Structure formats: C-alpha cells, structure tokens
Amino acid sequence: MAAAFSPSRALAGLIAAQRDRWALWTAPAMITGAAWWLTLPVDPPIWAAGTYLATALVLMVGLIAWPSPRHNSFGARFRQVLTAVCALAGAATLGAVAAQIRTASVAQPPFTHGSDPVRVQGWVSDIDSSDSGPRLRILVRGIDGVASPPRFVRVAVRQAGLLSPGRFADCRAVLGPPSGPMAPGAYDFARRAYFERLGATGYAYGRCRPLAFTPPLSWLDAQRLRISAMRADLSAAIQEAAPGRGGAIAAAMITGDTSPIDKDTTTAFRNSGLQHLLSVSGVHMGVVGGLVFAVLTWLLSLISPIALRFPVKKIAAVFALIALAAYLVISGSSVPALRSFIMACVAFGAILLDRPAISIRGVVLSALLVTLILPESVLEPGFQMSFAATAALVTLFELLKRAPHEPNLPAPGLFIGALQGITRGIGSVLLISLVAGLATDPFAIYHFQRFSIYSLPANLIAEPIISFLVAPAASLAAVLAPFGLSDGPLQFMASALELVAAIG
After folding, report:
1. Is the pLDDT of residue 269 over 90?
2. 20 to 30 A from 240, CA-CA: which of 2, 233, 328, 401?
C-alpha cells in the first residue's frame, strides 16, 4: 500500500536534496533583509534588527547542538526545516543590520535653510554636466547662517571657468534639500543623495570664485581632492591627445569623467543599450582584470625558470588585483566600480586559494560582501542587473561543464579547425549576450519602462571592439604614458570608440 503524501516529508526531502547548496540562499535572504529595511516608511529602533539577528542565531545554534533524533523521524525532518528557516532569517536580519549601520554612519543634519541665497565655501571635489551646464560638487567648509552644514552640496553654474577639482571655491547660491521621487516608485534622488552625504543642491547666484588653496579638514580629504585633481588633469590630457567624440568617451572609460560627452551621444548609447559602457562598471573591470591576468600568465609561462618554480597564475592574479585597485582609484571609486572591484577580488582571490575562479559560490560571496559594505546598492538597478547577468552566465558555464563531451575524433585539418574555432567563438559571444540580455531585461523594463530591441545586436558588435581593440589600446597607453608616448594608443582607442558610437 502506497504511503500517504506528507508535506513535511516532501519539504524535508527537497531541502535535503539541496544540502550542498543551502549556503547559496543566504545571499538572496540578506539582500531581501537589506532591501526591506531600506524601504520601511519609518526607521525602527536601533535595537530592533540586532534583537532579531540574535534570536535567529540562538535558535539556529540550539537546533544544531540539540541531540539528533532518528534519521527518518518527524523530529529529524522538522529540525532540518527549522534550521534552514532560522539560517535564512539570520541572513535576512544581518542584511537589515548592515543597512541600519550604514544608514546611521552617513547620517547628517537635514538642510532646512530658506530660499535666500547663502555663501558657500569649500573644495570642488568633482564637476559633472547637465542640460543646463556644469554642476560643482563641493566639499563644504562652511555655509553662512548654517550651524551644521552638510558634508557635500551640488551647485549648478553657467560656466566652471577657472574652477577645477581640488580648487577652493567661494559661491553665492540658492540651496535646498535633494528632491524625492516625482511619483510613487519612481527614481528617488533624495535616497541616493543621502548615502552620498549630499545634503543640498541648487544653483549659483552669480559666479563661483576660485580662492587661494586652503588646507582641507583632514589628511584623507586632502588625498581625495588630490586624486580628483589628478583625474581631471588625466581627462583633459586624454581629450587633448584624442579630440572629438571618441576622446571624450575614452576619458569617461578611463577616468569616470562623463562631463565631456555631449547629450546626443549619451542619448544614442542609452537607446542602443550601450549606456553601461560610459560608466566604469563590471564590463570595464572584467576586461582590465582579465587582460592583465591573461597577458601576465602568458608572458610568465614563456620564462621557464619562473614557470617551473613559481605559481604563474597566482602571480598574475596578484598583479591583476593591483591593476584593478589602481583603476578603481583613477576612475573615481564610484559605487558601480567599487561593486565590480569586490566581485573581481573574490574571483582572483579564488585563484590565490586554488579554488575555481568562476563559480556560483563566488557570485554569492560577492553579493554578500557588497550587501554588507554597500547595503543601499541593493535597490539600485546596476546591482540587480549586474548580479543577475553574472549569476546567469556562471550558471550557463556550470551547465556547459556538465554537458557530455564529444568523443575523440580525428584532428581536423588547418582550415576546418580554424573554421570550427571561429564558429565556436561567434556562437559563444551570441550565447553569452543572449543569456545576459534575458537576465537583465526584466530589471531594465521594471526600472526604466523601456526595452531596446537593438540592445542584443548592438552589444554583440560593441563587446568585441571593447575587448580586443579598446582595452589593449588603453593598457598600452598606460604603459607608455611615463615615456610620453601614449598619444598613439589613445588616438587608436578613440577611433575604435568612434566605431562603437556609430552603432548607436
């Protein structure tokens, strides 16, 4: 007689079958906890998340330490289910704790000054562009009439003039708190500004005057301003060596400075689904890190004494991490760049620990680290699309590894072998772009209410240009820059980017 169906037995069997992948669910749980906390209408008491986390951990430890009942008993099945639930609850509450700590760490008094012009003094940390003109991001030294000024303000000006990152500025401006969403569920600039410690925005009432340099408030601020000034100088040098649209895009890809890119180019990239190429993100970090790792591995393998005595891949991984850290600093350390850097650190760290660099566990670990360090990013489209694409591609990679291989066949001729290699390469690019597109399109439709039918073919054409022309040219320019010989590679890079821009 067939045994009656038992929901508890079925659930326990399902959980037991996934025993090797239980830990993978901690990332979705932690992301859910952080997102839930950040979207609450009010801030709960500071002890709330910690209490929930402690309760979940105590229950989980108690269940693990409790004497094990018989394997097939109801108690054993119930304990498996309850342990899994407590583990997920603990991960979710840990995400909430991270969000609460991050929210408290960037808190500052709200800007409540009236609409009258005020005098703002501080250091220009960055200059970006808008339809109405340049916008200065100012590290505030003081605002007249404001006892506790915000750390940063953003002031729109007609012309930047002599002002540049690192310069001390004196502005008379009309300021107000950052605006919230235009409609329920729309983009919330105020939330992003809160975590960037941008306390007020407005426009200059007249011109902002550059003043004699005054030492910043701290050594760390001085280094940040020095890096900002270096980025601005580097961006100007790139555009001088390679003028035009291609040079502006090259400056954006290297330094993260998108202000030289005109509105038409930005719109064309957005409509063709290539806008991710204009901001330093996972594509750029992956190409730079992969290129450095591949080239160094190949070069070191050619030197027999080194190849026979030292772990070539580990040496290349260390230098790839150093190159990525330098790129992160030069590009401005934006949130997408920092998120991609963390993911790259996990991948190259796996190589250093003799673990697979491409694995779903690596993706989960990256998501956990990003959620703990930057919990506010879980609500950003970039976070969701980046990890969706990465998880989909890694899953595809694991499925292809498990697929049965072709039996040993006679080696094809030179022409047939080359043709097969080209066909596999094109097929791989098509498959990767298709899978990544299917994984990210739902998020793009949800957040932006638009879908580009040209996105897939545009990326199929653009990605090889970026990987095989733009990235090597940028790397060669970096190597030759100390000798003053970077103009040629930069001009070649700009020409290649003109091809990418033409796709839009």
Report:
1. no
2. 328
